[in-house]
Design brief:
globular, 71 residues, alpha+beta, 4-stranded antiparallel beta sheet
């Protein structure tokens, strides 16, 4: 799977933009910090942005998308 780190929180959570090599789908992967005991999850980009959209991880994804558009 191809990945790009979007945001790393001060508490150790990591969000990555990933592409599934089989389907070609772009997803947001969340890897919780070790102390939370959570499991890594993957979410469709649209669903990720609709589910909150105001956190620094959301802003990082929007900034990355913005770099793809010419002025």
């Amino acid at each position: 799977m191809t990945t790009k780190v979007l945001y790393e929180s001060p508490n150790g959570d990591i969000w990555r933009l990933v592409r599934d090599p089989q389907s070609g789908a772009a997803l947001v992967e969340h890897q919780p910090n070790a102390s939370s005991g959570g499991r890594t999850s993957r979410t469709d980009i649209g669903q990720f942005l609709r589910a909150g959209g105001r956190g620094p991880e959301h802003q990082a994804l929007l900034a990355l998308i913005g770099t793809l558009v010419d002025d």
